């Protein structure tokens, strides 16, 4: 796929311009106006089939966090074709592409690359059948969170911006990040001194796709999502025969009670008016129905907006586990509780300006301010170094599936992120994403 896409790029006048022309652009340029809108729409229409092919290839070949060698290789090759200086191996499997176009701001555009340990059930003809080793077990892998769309939009935006170099000046920093799904990819890139090597951005932009209409863009002013923590607890017991439970200390019983009792922390300890969630996503124990095992493992996630709420929830997880062990007279549990890193904060002023610019290029009633989400995102690690940033959301489904308020008419027809049925409609999703991201970038770099 990648070679085919590269060869198609090579046949366009774009690559000839890159090869023959200096990076400096003509002195005159257009702001975000009808001409800019027309130019973006024309370029997107011309290249959308190629971009959909890129998306489908990424979707069919997902890779788990810190294993994204194929994805990173494709991105590196495409960016180099477009004239970017590419440095690989930042944060293990991440990369940074730099494109200079005269004096101006340094603008970061970030996409994440990793997939999830999940078996796809979409039935698409380009569905993933990939399997790999994950935590010592064979597992299926799927792009169930839309990072395949993020990568396709990322590359398409790079191509569009190169084609429109006359409209902007400054330096692009395109960051392909590994391991967003709990693997600490942003932290690893920060530990590799990404901004010391390439500069601290003057502006930053990122996006995420989700279960809303594919012609919509949503921006949250201020804190846009939650902090994320989690836990990994092994309840230790004494195994034995299922017919003689009195001779055992049953860890499955402890794990089951723990899962139920956790919710009392949310319903009885967290302030009623504050957001907080504790969810268990994995329970692993035993091998046969007539054997009581000697251990049971429980993994889960904790989400919150305010730090004080997070502290209370995490303390409640640990205390509940310890209490259940004491009640059972069991050996000590192996309790690992981790706090969240940081939430994503959108600069309010830049949010206003970005929404205003996007509203000139996309239907104004389809670009709007929205409420914070309960999901989490490690892009906030980058924002410890700078704050002038906007992270926005793009929908992936047919608008006919939603009412006038944006609510789904049938939730079963719009599976969300992390569902094995998550299936964005490629072309319109990419079209909206590329148009929005290109507009956001040019709006802060326009001559």
SSE map:
Elements lengths: L1 H9 L2 H8 L13 H27 L8 H13 L3 E6 L3 E8 L4 E7 L18 E4 L2 E4 L6 H17 L6 E8 L7 H7 L2 H5 L4 E11 L3 E3 L2 E2 L3 E10 L3 E2 L9 H18 L7 E10 L5 E2 L2 E10 L2 H22 L5 E5 L6 E2 L1 H14 L5 E3 L19 E9 L28 H20 L2
Parallel strand pairs: 3-6, 3-7, 7-18, 8-17
Antiparallel strand pairs: 1-2, 2-6, 4-5, 8-18, 9-16, 10-14, 10-15, 11-13, 12-14
Helix pairs in contact: 1-4, 3-5, 3-11, 5-11, 8-9, 10-11
Task: Give keywords.
24% strand, 11 helices, 18 strands, 447 residues, 4-stranded antiparallel β-sheet
Q: Mind explaining what this structure looks like?
A:
- There is one protein chain.
- With 447 residues, this protein is an alpha+beta fold.
- 36% of the residues lie in helices and 24% in strands.
- It contains eleven helices and 18 strands.
- It has helices at 2-10, 13-20, 34-60, 69-81, 147-163, 185-191, 194-198, 251-268, 307-328, 348-361, 426-445, and strands at 85-90, 94-101, 106-112, 131-134, 137-140, 170-177, 203-213, 217-219, 222-223, 227-236, 240-241, 276-285, 291-292, 295-304, 334-338, 345-346, 367-369, 389-397.
- The strands form five sheets. It has an eight-stranded mixed β-sheet with strand order 1-2-6-3-7-18-8-17, with helices on both faces.
- Helix 3 packs antiparallel against helix 5, helix 3 (34-60) packs across helix 11 (426-445) and helix 10 packs across helix 11.
- The two termini are 36 Å apart.
- The model is unreliable at 6-30 (pLDDT under 50).
